[in-house]
Structure formats: C-alpha cells, structure tokens
Amino acid sequence: xxxxxxxxxxxxxxxxxxxxxxxxxxxxxxxxxxxxxxxxxxxxxxxxxxxxxxxxxxxxxxxxxxxxxxxxxxxxxxxxxxxxxxxxxxxxxxxxxxxxxxxxxxxxxxxxxxxxxxxxxxxxxxxxxxxxxxxxxxxxxxxxxxxxxxxxxxxxxxxxxxxxxxxxxxxxxxxxxxxxxxxxxxxxxxxxxxxxxxxxxxxxxxxxxxxxxxxxxxxxxxxxxxxxxxxxxxxxxxxxxxxxxxxxxxxxxxxxxxxxxxxxxxxxxxxxxxxxxxxxxxxxxxxxxxxxxxxxxxxxxxxxxxxxxxxxxxxxxxxxxxxxxxxx
Length: 328
Description:
Blueprint: H1 7-10, E1 24-28, H2 41-49, E2 56-61, H3 69-75, E3 80-82, E4 98-101, H4 107-112, E5 127-132, H5 136-143, E6 148-150, E7 156-158, H6 164-172, E8 186-192, E9 195-200, H7 216-239, H8 249-266, H9 271-284, H10 292-299, H11 304-324
Antiparallel strand pairs: 1-9, 2-4, 2-5, 3-4, 5-8, 6-7, 8-9
Helix pairs in contact: 6-7, 7-8, 8-9
C-alpha cells in the first residue's frame, strides 16, 4: 500500500534551519559485544540506555538485517509496532523498521548487544536506540514523518535514518530534512562498530515543509557508499584475517573503494561476481584491478560478467597446474 498520501507524512512534518537546531553529539568508543573476550556492551549500554525511569527506551530495528526479528518479537512481552501502518500488506513488515520498547533484561536487548549468528545482531548494526518522554503513539507518529521524504521534484525517497552510521553521517552534514527528528524530549543513540553517539537538542524545531533539497540525495549516497566500503572491509578481515593482518584499515578502505570503482567501470553486474572481484583484487591476486591489460580485456566484452567468469576459470586452472607442478 503506497504511503505518499499518508497523514503522518504529509501533515505536520517539520524541517528546521541548520543554525536553529544543530544537534548536540557526544561519542564514546571501546564497546565490546557479548560473544567476544572482555565484553562490556551490555554493562555500558545498560548505563547509557536505562540510567533512570525518567524516559522510556526503544529500539528502531531494521527487519532486513535483524535475522529472526519477527519470531523474537512474537516471543517477547514487549511493545512493538512497524512504522508502516499495514505491515502485513505486500510484505511491508519485512522492509519497514519496527519500533520496540526495550527493558534492560529483555532478550531483544541482549541480541542487540551480542556478536555472532544466530544469537546476536551486533555485527549487522540493525538499529538505533531512542530515549523519550513521548508516549508510544506520539513517538510512532513522529518517526513516520521522516522515513519517506519527497525531493525537490516530488519524487519519494526512503530515508533509512535507522541505519546508525548513516544517521550520524547525516547529522555531520546537517541534512536539513532530518533536523526536526530529534526533539528536546527525544534523544537518539546510534551504535556502530565499537562506538556510540548521542544525538540531542535543546531547541524545538520550526515547522517548515519537509523535503530533500538539491544535492541532498548525492550527499546521502556518498555516506552510504562509505558505509558499504567499511562493511566490505570488515567482511574481508573476517574471512582473510591472516592475509590482511598487516594492512591498516585506511589502506584496506582505499583499496576496496578503488576496486569497486573499477568493477563499476568495467561493467560487472552480478553481485556475486562483484564480491569475487573484490576478494581477488585485494587478497588472492593483489592489485589485479589496476592491471590495465586485465581491465581492457574485461571492458572490451559485451558481457563483462561472462568474460570475468572466463578469466576466473583460467586463473583457477593455472593455480591448480602450478600446485601439481610443485610451484607452491
């Protein structure tokens, strides 16, 4: 069911001036999740999220990343509600985030603090946290004003502000369309990697028409690209820890960025081939992506995906031959 005529999106949404409602941001690092040595996430996040009973604590959870979210919610006795009014229609409940009231002893909170499947969601960074004095209904209504926003041409855009790293990035560039999200009575807490950021304001925003401005989509895209690069780098370190042990994060990020640019330039379309191209260029055949002959070989084909499959097959056969001949 389309939501572009939804009351909570088209009515009362506010877009504040940057100078008027610049969010206050405090950051901490050093969080270690359950499932790893010297874990401290539950203890530290409990102090952050449940310091007293003056506010209620919620999580806004992405169902596309939180494996088993639906069953976990059904087994809990917590309040939960999808940001889409009709989550059962056309599978919207598996796409739109879920607002979940948390307690410090709830299984959902523990999963958000735990690394490793199938028990935990920590590694996938599935949510942001909220502390507020708003009622659940008012909070739900307020959040729904910001998840689908029109641009300057009236085209609707899904603004995934519940992505914790994206949320912090959007605040850093002072995205006008998001400045009304945080209120004096509503604080956001974003946890990504080993860091946690607190977003708050002491000023109630002005009420102006809410829409993305010229250039905002490009800036959002740049932030999401950076997040994708860091995510790919983390997966590479997880799968090839020994091979990448001596490579600093900054160098790894730079290489992943360059490889992705080359893959796009070549015209690779298949996601699995993208991943293989990254692994080969960074780990198994380091620097392959900068070899001009290989780039020309792949780019010249009308079907770069198949040409890369052929190249991969040739490399594997040569490696197999070299092993048999005692070259390795």
